[in-house]
Amino acid sequence: MAKTSKALIVLESPWFDLEQDPKQRTSIRPFLQGLADFYDASLYYSMFHNLDSFNHSVKRYEDVKAKSHIIYVASHGKGGRVAAVGRQIQLKRLLECIPDNYEALDGIMLGACDVGNSKAVQYGLKRNRACWIFGYRHAVDWMASTLVDMAILDEVLVKGRTRSRSQTITAFAKALHRFDGNWVIADDGAGRPMPIKKTIALWFHERRPGTQPRLITGDLLARLARQGGDWD
């Protein structure tokens, strides 16, 4: 069992209201806690109900002592917005809560539907210190996307800092190679099934003067296609 000095910061909004789920037991936390325990990683968890509580949680964990941090946002999403107990929050405003001097931050995972292609992702990467943001372009199945996210975290939690484009593509390709590229995990909003290879979105920002955030999903898919598994 490998050990890691990384911290996993999990910020989750309720998936159902109290009437639908009185005990609020639906959560990604048990899955991520098991993974963190396996690698002896530090997991920090907060539930957010609005923009203010999200902002408070980010500031609370910014100074956690760890070699590097990964932020995982878990919520409903649609059209470039995330939902917290029925309240729609613009992804741009959510990402603005992440300090631009958050030096320990390696990347951000957006465990939400239909936010991965939002222009807000590019904006967020440009203003904060993360090198990558991963998300989904369509409405994804909860369990399927959880399995994908777990596979990715299984790689990035035990790697060195994923601060270069090459490191990031290598880690994500190794994680996603476990799946068939034609595995249907989403629909396009009109009822048409969408495979994983047309659903994922990976953005990267090389931290050098004059560089801009780039969508590198095509580079990731090309690497996966060379490894086989119907990713082309």
Q: What is the succession of H and E elements? A: EHEHEEEEHEHEEHHEEEEH
Q: Poorly predicted ranges (pLDDT <50, ≥5 residues)?
A: none
Number of domains: 1
Structural class: alpha/beta
Largest sheet: 7 strands, mixed
Overall mean confidence score, pLDDT: 90
What does this 3D model show about the protein?
The chain is α/β, with parallel strands linked by helices and 232 residues long. The protein contains seven helices and 13 strands. The strands form three sheets. A seven-stranded mixed β-sheet has the order 2-1-3-7-8-12-13, with helices on both faces. It has a three-stranded antiparallel β-sheet with strand order 4-5-6. Strand 10 and strand 11 form a beta hairpin. The longest helix is centred in the middle third of the chain and has 15 residues, at 142-156. The model has no long low-confidence stretch (mean pLDDT 90).
Concise description?
With 232 residues, this protein is of the alpha/beta class. It has seven helices and 13 strands.
Keywords:
232 residues, Rossmann fold, seven-stranded mixed beta sheet
